[in-house]
Specification:
single chain; about 100 residues; alpha+beta; five-stranded mixed sheet; 2 helices
Length: about 100
Amino acid sequence: MASEESVLSSTSSGTIMIIRLSHQLGKKIGVKTTQSFPLHSNPFADWSAHLFTADRTQYIIMVNTTSLYSVMTFGRGITNDSKFLGRMTSVLGEFLRDDGFTFIW
């Protein structure tokens, strides 16, 4: 992850999430680098996300900043912050439920 970060705030069920974006992911979705934020008081609401390429395919990895619990999704089709947030919440919800963490979601 880059030391500079972009931060998106997403509301899901009234809870604010901090999403720290790498420079590469911020550039892809058109979000500029902003200030750094301290860790969220709720450890389940603080995530980091990074875009990377493997075998010519783009992937996005989303990592819980505190626990390092990670999920991945394809980066194809993610062209703006709205599409990213939609995919992130969908993928996170699916993985958390599948792993038995429904109390978090």
